Predict the 3D structure of the following.
Amino acid sequence: MNKKLLYSCLAVALGAGTGFATFVMAQAKPDVLVKQRQAVMTLQGKYFGPLGAMAQGKAPYNAAVVQRNAGFLDNLSRMPWDGFDPSTKGEKSRALPAVYEDKAKFDQSGSALENEISKLVTVSRSGDEAAVKAQISVVAKVCGGCHESFRAKQ
Amino acid sequence: MNKKLLYSCLAVALGAGTGFATFVMAQAKPDVLVKQRQAVMTLQGKYFGPLGAMAQGKAPYNAAVVQRNAGFLDNLSRMPWDGFDPSTKGEKSRALPAVYEDKAKFDQSGSALENEISKLVTVSRSGDEAAVKAQISVVAKVCGGCHESFRAKQ
């Protein structure tokens, strides 16, 4: 199969709903941007949830899981921000207007998340369980603080 | 704020729909697993799409974007598999029964994706544009092959 045909088949097989619409578009549509940023939040929940449970003593501490999840979160924490494009203001989502009205504070919150997760990656390699749990709590506080300011209550 | 209260607030603020339900659950519910694995596909689309466009010559080649996206994809490619739990068979999704009926082949496809993306990470650091584009095409073929066998057409 030649390359052009291969990609055409892929585009059809994958469908616009998967985000592969970016194959042929310079700029993703607002609904796609919202779907992508919500996908990041879903996965941050998947990989941070167990760490929160460990920090709370609700799940047994597992250093290997913390290291793996911290690595995933380190990547995920850098993914959502370009999804908060002003073009998405009219889309259905829990993002509050403050995301766009107080962009400096929102960006600062985003950077804080990246930085604290980056520290979690480092600490998770130390073998110091207490320090790891303390840093998990710092990350939890950054998540919660940002949601408090920028996400509508359910 | 003490830790217990902090996590209680987080659980309320984030809501079960985000995947933070794992804070208090040992095993995610089938609908959550489906949402999480679909979130991975959405993000794989976000970060592979532009690479596909570059390999096709539909977008200008940008080595920095390829390196960044390859790193993200390297993480993402390891995230979806535990979401294909047999408990999700009854959930609405495009996953075909073959996912569970031919698990060996499905697992093999998953490993192939991880391996070829890992190679893309390495090649993306080489500065060899032709080799990078060739490896992007290999990854595209692995994506398409797996979808052909295991995902319902839209």
